[in-house]
Amino acid sequence: MAKRILIIEDEATQVLLLESRLRASGFEIARAMSGEEGLEKARTLKPDLVLLDVILPGITGLEVSQRMREEEATRDIPVILVTASQMKDLETRSKIFGITALLTKPYAFADLLGKVNSLLPPESAAAPSNA
Question: In the chain, which stretches have pLDDT less than 70?
């Protein structure tokens, strides 16, 4: 059974690119375009992993992660913060808000896939693609 990744990102082009590449790597994908929608989908879908942008409409990605950590149903879901944000002390803030891993845009898809695979059980890991 394919592992499910929830992409919480407000840039449609970025969502489509990630969705296409991750599906090709064997993952099931769900998506949300705002912080609130992402949090609700994390609660209802209970994905195996969340890819999360910082700057979102409504609540920020950091707030989404913090709320996920406060709720029993979502607290153990790994969260990779994928962002172009140049926010001061982002790495420190990420730890405070419960982010599992951080990836700064632009990035190579192979780096993202490596982080995803490192956070999911070995039997669910997808093989790296030629990116």
Answer: 85-88, 122-131
